[in-house]
Amino acid sequence: MSQTDLILLDTSVVLHVVRGNEYAERIDKAYDLRGRAEKSLISVVTVGECHSFAFRLGWGDAKREKLDELLRELVIVDIHNATVLRHYAEIDAFSKKNGRILSDNDTWIAASARAANAVLLTTDKDFDPLDPRFIRHVYFPANAKVDAPS
Question: Which of 10, 33, 67, 138 has the greatest CB tally within 10 Å of its CB?
């Protein structure tokens, strides 16, 4: 992945950034999430997932405002467009045909990354079966050292 590639953040990465934990700092340092020439992207599905997570965990006003501030910094990819919808159908059919379990939300996120021609940054391995056929992704295991892209 190069510094000029568009990046789409998975929900897990957004939640780490909101928490401001050391893991998020390492990812941000490696990929300059907020300082890139092109703003980082997220799927509209991630917006819903983040707010649901905040409600389930009873986040207070300050933490919810931090989430809202971060979301305002990112470019939201809407799923109501023909390209995203077509990619969703292709990825969903591939996953089901090949016996792979991928949540509907992860399928939408992958379709958003593919439609935007963006590299998906994630902290889970759910997207592994889709790379490189449908998406390019970078997986960050929680306890691994994050190096800067080459």
Answer: 10
